[in-house]
Write a structure and sequence with these properties.
Elements lengths: L2 H12 L21 E7 L7 E6 L13 H14 L3 H15 L2 E5 L8 H10 L7 E4 L16 H9 L8 E6 L2 E6 L8 H11 L5 E4 L7 H11 L17 H12 L3 E6 L6 E4 L5 E4 L7 E7 L1
């Protein structure tokens, strides 16, 4: 440690101070010190090792000046809620991935709601210089607040599909012999056509990493989620039971637990970083909110 940084920390600690990194000498800060990254390793049987930066839940809150008063109200309230630095966090993540990883994966709630301002921001962030991208859709991409009108899911989906750089209902990209498959489970379930499309991907015989927004809930993930979202949640009672997903989803989960080509699951939605074994061959990874500069680098071998 150089003397200037040592002396700075010594003086700060002497008075019990906690200081922002913005006050540190410039040479004491990394280019990406705002990012808070977790790490994981998935042994998938890749043709050669590579890494992805997994982020989720950016919750962009832009609105054009000419958008109606309802949208403007959401812009003010939700920007305050998420801190107002979501676009900065997204751009930092994209830049970090371009330099340090092979792919950027975003698993939903890229925007907090559908608006013209948010769609422009998505297009700007994920422009031609953003690098290799893939991802899935979240529940907030299905919300479009307008005065006197509530657009349906189909209208929201169509609006996002024009701006997002990847397929939103179901998608597949093969990277170094590993098949990344994305599904739209933003409503807490999966559709039969997605299950059938997944079966076709299995026929390729490649290891699969599944991307989705809403995780497959287990008692441990539910417990961690409630501790994050609920005041004074100490769980002295019986562990919570798994919830969500209808009949089709439950059958899909049962099938996935026995599918040996499934090597990992990347999800978000709950704004917490946690991982848990899902099946004999796959671990499920949730990543905290990108609006708070969180992410996870996943090394895939």
């Amino acid at each position: 440690m150089n003397r200037s940084r040592r002396d700075f920390l010594k003086s700060a600690l002497a008075v019990g101070g906690v200081v922002a990194t913005s006050r540190l000498p410039l040479h004491a800060r990394g280019n990406f010190e705002q990012l808070s990254l977790a790490y994981a390793h998935v042994n998938a049987g890749a043709a050669r090792p590579f890494s992805v930066l997994h982020i989720s839940d950016t919750h962009l809150t832009f609105a054009n000046p000419d958008e109606d008063e309802v949208v403007q109200g959401y812009r003010r309230r939700r920007t305050e809620l998420f801190g107002g630095r979501q676009f900065e966090a997204l751009k930092d993540s994209i830049r970090w991935a371009k330099i340090n990883a092979d792919y950027l994966i975003h698993t939903g709630d890229l925007v907090d709601w559908v608006s013209e301002g948010n769609m422009i921001a998505v297009q700007e962030a994920f422009g031609p210089d953003a690098g290799n991208l893939f991802g899935s859709i979240g529940n907030h991409e299905y919300f479009w607040p307008l005065k006197g009108k509530k657009p349906g899911h189909a209208e929201c989906f169509e609006k996002c599909a024009k701006s997002f750089p990847y397929d939103l209902h179901f998608g597949s990209q093969v990277v170094n012999g590993v098949n990344f498959v994305s599904i739209d489970d933003a409503h807490g379930d999966v559709a039969q056509d997605q299950v059938e499309a997944f079966a076709q991907e299995v026929k390729k015989g490649l290891p699969i990493i599944l991307l989705m927004h809403v995780p497959f809930y287990t008692p441990r993930i539910i417990e961690a989620t409630r501790k994050y979202w609920t005041w004074n949640s100490k769980f002295r009672d019986e562990p919570p039971k798994p919830i969500r997903f209808g009949k089709t989803g439950q059958e899909f989960i049962k099938y996935l637990k026995s599918e040996r080509l499934l090597k990992g699951i990347l999800a978000g939605h709950e704004h917490i970083t946690i991982e848990e074994r899902f099946s004999p061959t796959a671990v499920q990874y949730l990543v905290a909110g990108n609006f708070a500069f969180a992410g996870r680098e996943v090394l895939i071998t």
